[in-house]
Amino acid sequence: MPRETEAATVTEQQVDRDHDGPFAVTLRSTSEAVRRTLALITEHFAGSVPDAELGMLEMVLAETLNNVVEHAMSGNARGQVKLRILCRNGGLDCTILDNGLPMPDGEPPRTTLPEIGRMIDDLPEGGFGWSLIRMHVRDLEYRRQDGINVLRFLLPLTEMADT
User: Which pTM value belongs to this model?
Assistant: First the structure.
């Protein structure tokens, strides 16, 4: 039976503690929905994914999902974002689908980390996200298919935690 939250719609089967199937969620394109989704992910994978890697998953998904909300959806809270996470290939295989605007140049930005050897007040506001994402994931893929953005990546795991 579906469980409705203000931010995301999740079926009980999708967030059960079995961990054999995928974690899947559909969320509205708002920052509140992203925060709620991150909390659901942490709850779902706690105890089965090591804490440090769960924190890395949360950081990578916060960056990617917030980019979808801010850039692809451009503030359109009626847009829809779907996230699926599978445990396979030695990691967490993540797929994000959204019906927003396509990525510029048809690929995730290729950025480098801004120089940080200066005063805190002089640091740039942005520019860290895609560099951090690329540093921590493997097999990053993006395509536009039938008006849908499809972003896929693998977050490697050193090991699964004891459950």
Answer: 0.80
Residue 64 to residues 30, 67, 116, 143, 162, Cα–Cα distance (Å) = 13, 5, 22, 15, 28
Per-residue pLDDT of the chain (163 residues), as tens digits, is 344 444 455 443 334 344 556 899 999 999 999 999 999 999 999 988 999 999 999 999 999 999 999 999 987 878 899 999 999 888 999 999 999 999 988 888 777 666 666 655 655 555 567 888 988 999 999 999 999 999 999 999 986 554 4
Distance CA 29, CA 136 (A): 24
Q: Is the domain covering 2-156 a CATH 3.30.565.10 domain?
A: yes
Q: Residues 96, 133: contact at Cβ < 8 Å?
A: no
Closest C-alpha among 150, 58, 62, 157 to residue 108: 150
* Structural domain spans, the chain: 2-156
